[in-house]
Amino acid sequence: MRGLTISAMEPAVIPLKSPAPRDPRKAERERAKLNKRLRRLVGQAIADYGMIEEGDRVMVCLSGGKDSYTLLDILRQLQRKAPVRFELVAVHLDQKQPGYDPTILPRYLEAEGMPFLILEQDTYSVVKRVVPAGKTMCGLCSRLRRGALYACAEREGFTKIALGHHADDILETFFLNLFFHGRMAAMPPKLRSDDGKHIVIRPLAYCRERDIARYAAERGFPILPCHLCGSQEGLERQVVKRMLAEWDRRHPGRVENILRALGEVRPSQLLDRRLFDFGALRAFSAAPPDAAAWLGGSADRA
Ligand code: SF4
After folding, report:
1. Per the confidence metrics, is the pTM higher than 0.85?
2. Where are the domains of the chain?
3. Which CATH number fits the domain 4-268, given the four candidates 1.10.3720.10, 3.40.50.620, 3.30.110.30, 3.50.50.60?
4. Closest C-alpha to 153, from 192, 104, 126, 106
5. Ligand 1 surroundings by CB, under 6 angstroms
6. 246-270 tens-digit pLDDT
7. CA-CA distance, 199 to 192, in Å (whole number)?
8. Tell me: the pLDDT tens digits for 31-72?
9. How far is the CA of 226 from the centre of ligand 1 (A)?
10. β-strand 199-201 against 190-192: which pairing, if any?
């Protein structure tokens, strides 16, 4: 399946800034340490959530951003030593954005000897037509992209769909839901798609974005910008991103603690009656008075 285009202006690649020159041996040690940390965290997430099983055909969604390149790279490293055998195929969707260079990804993947598929679908025109000028297009764009990728997974028989969302994405989503939608929900590391046909996994769930950015810069991935369309993140997400960056700067460890807390939920210490049966709680053997009794008599007093 190597180098297959299924169904495109000026070349556009963002060279990630290389870190400043350092002592080469020290730099090499740091690189190896970072690589090892990312490998360990990805391996841990895969094991914790049962993300990859024997015989899986894993479709790695490669947008051309730092996150998806890193995901693919680390998964390939783990594949060589994993206790189970699984297949990896990189899948990229050419959304027909202005300025997109269709040669960059195939060139990289061929040089890496990586099996891949390139899908073509003009989601850009659809988004431009539907979303009013000045509004962020990312919501609809992501939904259309998801549709195209799910359809490909079904057609090609992939058993898992791997996405490059990382710990910062998970936390941003958590705070967006908390601050602006009044619910406690983040981004799950593993989920079944709404139509029940696909299992989506996020092996970078434990990895911080700053580590991924550093790794991508060190590895020199040929990054494709995700703003060729001119769209920008919503204001609310920018607010949350700034808040997390500020916490990282002023309170080291806080963000990691919150991430850990998402895996340490105590339903009995929260207020959600669907998760914990507070009504069934009994002291000794006495039954609690019902609502009518609390209201001072019969239930129809109200
Ligand atoms: S920045 Fe552009 S390409 Fe990226 S998700 Fe948003 S609308 Fe889509």
Report:
1. yes
2. 4-268
3. 3.40.50.620
4. 192
5. 137-138, 141-142, 226-227, 229, 231
6. 999 999 999 999 999 999 999 999 9
7. 5
8. 999 999 999 999 999 999 999 999 999 999 999 999 999 999
9. 5
10. antiparallel
